[in-house]
Amino acid sequence: MAKKNVLKAGENIRKIYIGPSLKGIARGTVFQNGLTPELKEKIQKMPAIAELVVPIERLRDANHELTDPDSALSRFFQIVEKNKEGE
Q: How many CB atoms sit inside 10 A of residue 15's CB?
């Protein structure tokens, strides 16, 4: 089961978006002190995006997971990629 990566109120952890670039959110965008309202809105419309926002400390492992087509992160990436046209 995939870990939930969404920041909670007051959490001060740097996270990075590792999904496909979206309108207004580029792959590799770093978030400090929470997510932007724009990203939160996108997550409301497509919850798989939240799984692609990972702690910076997990970046290396997460990128490795993306190379495995059967990993949960890779599947979330494909879901977002497939559905981003309608965003």
A: 23
Using alpha carbons, select from 61, 71, 81, 75 the residue that is nearest to residue 16: 61
- 36, part of any domain: yes
| Domain coverage including residue 41 | 15-86
Query: Taking the model in full, what pTM does it have?
Result: 0.81
For 19-77, how does the pLDDT look when each residue is reduced to its tens digit (9 = 90+)? 999 998 999 999 998 999 999 999 999 999 999 999 999 999 999 999 999 999 999 99
